[in-house]
């Protein structure tokens, strides 16, 4: 699954620069994660870096975008031009 940011985001700006895929950007009110770019940091890190740095724990799995570990790995390879 990709991740998404909940409404209790405080716009602290710490998650955006941590995303190796550039999937996080400012939305109309809070930061948002583009599902097509989110790999949960698969291929880059062992854990999602946005979740690691979020001070209010407002980043969760997005049930609207279910993806297997294999799908996240394939997305990583596509995004990095390895396939």
Automatic annotation (TrEMBL):
Pfam name, any one: Fer4
Assigned GO CC terms: cytoplasm
Entries under InterPro entries matching the protein: 4Fe4S_Fe-S-bd (IPR017896), 4Fe4S_Fe_S_CS (IPR017900), PSI_iron-sulfur_center (IPR050157), YfhL-like (IPR047927)
Gene3D superfamilies on file: 3.30.70.20
GO molecular-function terms, A-Z: 4 iron, 4 sulfur cluster binding; metal ion binding
Keyword Cytoplasm on entry: no
Residues covered by the 4Fe-4S ferredoxin-type domain: 1-29
PROSITE patterns: 4FE4S_FER_1 (PS00198), 4FE4S_FER_2 (PS51379)
Cofactor(s), by name: [4Fe-4S] cluster
Keywords: 4Fe-4S, Electron transport, Iron, Iron-sulfur, Metal-binding, Transport
Superkingdom, natural source: Bacteria
Official protein name in the record: YfhL family 4Fe-4S dicluster ferredoxin
Source lineage: Bacteria, Pseudomonadati, Pseudomonadota, Acidithiobacillia, Acidithiobacillales
